[in-house]
Every structure is written in C-alpha cells, then in structure tokens.
Amino acid sequence: MLRIALAIMALTMALSLWFGYNVFSIWRYSSSHCKAHVGAILIMGAAEYNGVPSKVLTARADSAAKLYQMGVARYVVSLGGSRKGDVYSEAEVARAELVREKVPSADAFASSYGQDTYQSIAGVLPLLRSLDVSKVVVVSDGFHLYRSVHIAQDLGLWACGYADEDSPIRGWLSFKYMLREALAVTGAQVIGYKEESILRHGQD
To answer: What predicted TM-score, i.e. pTM, was given to this entire model?
Structure first.
C-alpha cells in the first residue's frame, strides 16, 4: 500500500512539474515581439459581432498592420472561421480592419477556415504555398503565442510570434488563459496538435 501511495505521489509531482514547466514556457514567450523579415504575417482569429471586430481582434489586426508598415512582410493573412448563423468570418472582419489601417487590399488576405488554432493554421497552408511563403510572424495575444507558433512549426513553417500590445486581456485574466493554454499544450505533447483538434471538433 505504501508503494502505491509513493508511486501516486511521484506521478502527481511529475505531472505538476510538467504542467508547471509548460505554464512557465507560455509566460516566457508571451512577451515575444519578433520582427524577423518573413513572407507573411498571420493574425490569429478572435471574436467578431456581426461584422464588428471585438477589442481583442482589433488589437491583433492593428499590431499586424504596424508590422506590415514596418516592412516585416509582403503579405498579411487573417485567420478564423465563423460560427453557425454568422454573416462574416473572423478572418473577413480582421481583413477589413487591416484595410482600414492602410494595408493595401492586394496584400491583405482572409483565410476563413477552422474552428480552432490548429485548423486555422492548417487551413491557410495552401494559400501560403500559392504566395510562395514559408516563413511567418504570428500575431496574437501573448498567452496564445506559444501554442500558435508551435503548431505553425509542426506544420512545416518557419514561425515566430508577436504579442499585440493593446490587448484588453491582461493581468489575472491573461494568467487564467495561460493555464488553459498549458492544458492544451500538455495534451498535445501526449497525442499531437492534430489529434487534439480532431478530439474537439471531429475529423474534417
């Protein structure tokens, strides 16, 4: 009985350390401001309300527009699908925000695919190939960068992250999201990001 108790304690400690390391990794990467010269800037999706971007989506799009204007990339691609009943996709709304921020429409693309981070990045790959793009800067909230960049890398892209500076998600709320992200990262380290997505949404 003592052996079993000790084994359970050891396993619990190991899992706690593993999860804690992932939380630390997500936190450490959450302040990344990569400005490497790449082929495209990817904007991760966030909520929109009948064509009006949420504050989170606006902050991401505005940060991407600034990077574009700095010459970081030739193209900007917004990601994110739509939910049942939506008129617009997250990607379409973010692209409209880009154009408002003076990104030429010819350089701004919308990839309205996916119900989660993995699906969105996997779904944009054909467009990136058509643009001859293999290197990207991923723009999102800091808590979301670690997982987004790792998914992009797992899918064969060279990727780094840029945390938008004007996100309304800060402080304790941001940390709560980091914990959720750490759960997703830990699960993916066991079964893979694709398999985790399939478990959540089914096979496409």
So the answer is: 0.92
